[in-house]
C-alpha cells in the first residue's frame, strides 16, 4: 500500500480530527498537553468511549488497544467503577476531604495482600511522582545520592531518569557500558552526571559498574520487564537483588506498566523477587491520576511526620536535629480515585485469570496470521501487555535488540489497521482489557488477515 498512500487515506478518514488539532495548536504548544499523545501527521481526537471501543470526532468506531497507555484494564466506563465513584460522592458528600479517610487504609491493606514486599505504602498522583519519592527515600536511607538505571527504561520526566530511554546507535556507546544520553532539552547536567546507565540482562557488566561506584549509588531503579515487555533472563533480577543488598543500594522495581498487568502480584511475584521499594500507577488507579510507593517499613517509615521535624506539622521550630523525609500533596489518597482503584481490584480478582488466557490466545492467533505468509513477527510480552514486533531474532534481551526491529513497517501496518477500525498508537504496545471480548478479538484478527497480504504482496 505504501506509507504515502496510507497517509492520504488517514487524512481523508480524519478530517475533523485534523480541524481539532489546527484549533488546539492555537492555544496549546503542538496542540496537546502530553508529548506522548502525538504521532504523525496528527493524532485522532476522541469524542466518547465505551468498553473496548473508541468513537472519534469524525464518527468512526475503533477497537482500542492503547487503553489509556495501559491504564484502563477494565476498558472504558466499566459499570463497577462508575458505580463506585457515584457511591463515593453520594455517601461521602464530597470528592475531596483534605484529611485522612477510611479508603486510604483499606486500599493499602489490599495492596499489601498482593505484594508481600510491601510493608507500608504512600500515595502520589502519578507514576512519575512515585518514582521521585522512591528516589528520595533511597537517598535518605543510604546517605548516597547517585542513581543507577537501565538503558531503554522509562521512569517519567525526571532529570535524573530521563536518560538513555531511547538513544540512537551513534550516541549510545558500547552495549556493556552505555553512555548517558539526554532525552530532552533543559536537562540538569548535574543530575545527568549523578546517574549511571546499565545494560539490561547483562549481569556481569552491571555488577562491575555497581561495585565500582557502590560508595556513591544509593538507588537502582529497574523496569522488571524492560519497556513492559522484555523479560529478565538467567536469574537476572535475583542476582540484582543479592548484589544491591551486599552494596547497600536500594532496589526499586518500577511496576507502573506491569503492576497488575502480569498478575495480581506484579512481575516480582512471577520471578519471586522482593525489591526494597515498588512504584506503581496506571492500572491501580482505575484510569485516574494515581501512583503508589510501597516497600520495607525501615525505608518507608522515614516519610512519617512522627519520624522527625516536619515543617507542616505543629512542632517547635528549634527542634530540627532530626528531619522527617518530606512528602506531601493535596490530592494524595484522593477518595474518588481510591474508590475507583478498589473497584478495579475487585473486578481483576474475578477476571484476571481469564484475561491472561485470552491474551495468550490472541497473541498466538496474531502470530499465526503472519506465519501463514512466512513473515517474521513476534507478539512479545508477558501477561496482558505485549507488542507486535517485526524481527528475525529468536529472542529479545534488551533495548539494543530493537535495532533489529522494523519500526517503519510496524507503523505502516498500524495505519492500515486503523482504516479497518483497529486503534493503537503507531508502534505502541497492545494493552488488553477485560472488555476485549471474543467479538473484538475476532474482528481484529479479520483486520490483520485483510491487511497483511496488502503490506507483503511478494510473500503470498
UniProtKB/TrEMBL annotation:
Its EC number is 5.4.3.8. One of its GO terms (molecular function) is glutamate-1-semialdehyde 2,1-aminomutase activity. Its cofactor is pyridoxal 5'-phosphate. InterPro entries: Aminotrans_3, Aminotrans_3_PPA_site, PyrdxlP-dep_Trfase, PyrdxlP-dep_Trfase_major, PyrdxlP-dep_Trfase_small. The keyword Cytoplasm does not apply. The keyword Isomerase applies. Belongs to the class-III pyridoxal-phosphate-dependent aminotransferase family. This is Glutamate-1-semialdehyde 2,1-aminomutase.
Amino acid at each position: 500500500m505504501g506509507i504515502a498512500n496510507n497517509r492520504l487515506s488517514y487524512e481523508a478518514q480524519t478530517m475533523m480530527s485534523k480541524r481539532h488539532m489546527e484549533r488546539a495548536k492555537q492555544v496549546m504548544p503542538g496542540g496537546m498537553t502530553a508529548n506522548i499523545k502525538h504521532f504523525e501527521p496528527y493524532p485522532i481526537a476522541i469524542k466518547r468511549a465505551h468498553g473496548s471501543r473508541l468513537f472519534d470526532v469524525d464518527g468512526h468506531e475503533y477497537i482500542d488497544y492503547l487503553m489509556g497507555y495501559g491504564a484502563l484494564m477494565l476498558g472504558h466506563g466499566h459499570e463497577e467503577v462508575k458505580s463506585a465513584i457515584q457511591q463515593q460522592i453520594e455517601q461521602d458528600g464530597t470528592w475531596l476531604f483534605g484529611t485522612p479517610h477510611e479508603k486510604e487504609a483499606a486500599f493499602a491493606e489490599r495492596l499489601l495482600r498482593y505484594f508481600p514486599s510491601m510493608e507500608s505504602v504512600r500515595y502520589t498522583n502519578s507514576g512519575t511522582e512515585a518514582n521521585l519519592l522512591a528516589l528520595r527515600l533511597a537517598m535518605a536511607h543510604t546517605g548516597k545520592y547517585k542513581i543507577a538505571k537501565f538503558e531503554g527504561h522509562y521512569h517519567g520526566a525526571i532529570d535524573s531518569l530521563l536518560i538513555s530511554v531511547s538513544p540512537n546507535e551513534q550516541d549510545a556507546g558500547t552495549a556493556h557500558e552505555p553512555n548517558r544520553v539526554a532525552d530532552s532539552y533543559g536537562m540538569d547536567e548535574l543530575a545527568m552526571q549523578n546517574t549511571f546507565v546499565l545494560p539490561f540482562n547483562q549481569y556481569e557488566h552491571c555488577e562491575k559498574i555497581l561495585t565500582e561506584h557502590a560508595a556513591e549509588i544509593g538507588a537502582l531503579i529497574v523496569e522488571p520487564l524492560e519497556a513492559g515487555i522484555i523479560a529478565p533472563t538467567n536469574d537476572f533480577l535475583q542476582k540484582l537483588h543479592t548484589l544491591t543488598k551486599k552494596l547497600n543500594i536500594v532496589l526499586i522495581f518500577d511496576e507502573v506498566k506491569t503492576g497488575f498487568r502480569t498478575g495480581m502480584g506484579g512481575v516480582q511475584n512471577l520471578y519471586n523477587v522482593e525489591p526494597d521499594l515498588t512504584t506503581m500507577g496506571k492500572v491501580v488507579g482505575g484510569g485516574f491520576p494515581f501512583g503508589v510507593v510501597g516497600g520495607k517499613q525501615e525505608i518507608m517509615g522515614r516519610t512519617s511526620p512522627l519520624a522527625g521535624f516536619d515543617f507542616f506539622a505543629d512542632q517547635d521550630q528549634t527542634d530540627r536535629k532530626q528531619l522527617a523525609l518530606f512528602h506531601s500533596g493535596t490530592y494524595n489518597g484522593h477518595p474518588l480515585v481510591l474508590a475507583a482503584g478498589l473497584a478495579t481490584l475487585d473486578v481483576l480478582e474475578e477476571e484476571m485469570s481469564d484475561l491472561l488466557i485470552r491474551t495468550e490466545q490472541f497473541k498466538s492467533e496474531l502470530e499465526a496470521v503472519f506465519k501463514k505468509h512466512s513473515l517474521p513477527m513476534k507478539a512479545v510480552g508477558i501477561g496482558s501487555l505485549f507488542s507486535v514486533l517485526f524481527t528475525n531474532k529468536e529472542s529479545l534481551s534488551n533495548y539494543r535488540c530493537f535495532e533489529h526491529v522494523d519500526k517503519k513497517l510496524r507503523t505502516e501496518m498500524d495505519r492500515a489497521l486503523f482504516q479497518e477500525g483497529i486503534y493503537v498508537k503507531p508502534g505502541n504496545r497492545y494493552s488488553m482489557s477485560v472488555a476485549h471480548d471474543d467479538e473484538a478479538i475476532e474482528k481484529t484478527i479479520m483486520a490483520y488477515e485483510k491487511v497483511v497480504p496488502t503490506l507483503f504482496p511478494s510473500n503470498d
